[in-house]
Amino acid sequence: xxxxxxxxxxxxxxxxxxxxxxxxxxxxxxxxxxxxxxxxxxxxxxxxxxxxxxxxxxxxxxxxxxxxxxxxxxxxxxxxxxxxxxxxxxxxxxxxxxxxxxxxxxxxxxxxxxxxxxxxxxxxxxxxxxxxxxxxxxxxxxxxxxxxxxxxxxxxxxxxxxxxxxxxxxxxxxxxxxxxxxxxxxxxxxxxxxxxxxxxxxxxxxxxxxxxxxxxxxxxxxxxxxxxxxxxxxxxxxxxxxxxxxxxxxxxxxxxxxxxxxxxxxxxxxxxxxxxxxxxxxxxxxxxxxxxxxxxxxxxxxxxxxxxxxxxxxxxxxxxxxxxxxxxxxxxxxxxxxxxxxxxxxxxxxxxxxxxxxxxxxxxxxxxxxxxxxxxxxxxxxxxxxxxxxxxx
Length: 393
Known about the structure:
alpha/beta; three-stranded antiparallel beta sheet; 13 helices
């Protein structure tokens, strides 16, 4: 009988630990603070309370939502990668929606003049080239400049276990790399916000006043399956966990599956016919990829849809073998990184964050040699990161 009771206690403790509660779902903690204030929300389709959009829930709870700021992919999350998003009025609520992924990159003085507090609640995936951390940066700068408090409703990072990759070099600063961090930073949005403040990375080294609603029962090594996919081309748990190791293929002639319903889980190109049996065919898909690389052509390469995610997590590193293998297999190596072939190809150096990786791949360097070149920057960042963590590793 005693052993049964012990087992029940241990089992209950395990279940309690496993039950992650996002910041947004802890309405009893923060809604009283919002009452009586004029509130602006930085949200998209991932911003939910329970199964309901945060804006709808907060309005029903008596919060005065004056304005919504929408990031890349729009407030409803249905805009394609890189597509400019226009201002609008939300049809369901009548609330004004201002885009931060068009002419306006951050809230302007007039956008915040009638606002008492801004709430940021967007699901991130923990990669430097995923643009929501740039949105966070710019919103923090505006709040700091115009003396508005920013409340962050924190969410788990599905790649929170992963801290890996080269540190961004200063001369490669771009819209897909604004910060001196590795490709995978292993932080939640709230932790990253603390780093932006603490390291003086905001404009003129301003500090944004933060109020953080932490995730309950979360640690960085816990698997977390997103209840809502964060963007049109990250539409599966597999793609979200593979993304940090695959996005740099956007700077190559290799398709990452844009133009299919399985993006970021397949890799291939027409020129690899005869070397790989697996193939896929990118086509125009409105709202996902209208003009994908290798449109209407059969691409041959790797099917990563069944890669064991537990093994991926256990290794705790970006996968370098896929890009080393496909470069080696590609017949016309001079064209592998050549952006002149397609407007759909990005800048590999900016995606990688340094100018060495491309040349190291061309030179046939080993994975061990490449990883060694990321030091001591990566180790230094891991130490720096510890200062800002809100959750155990």
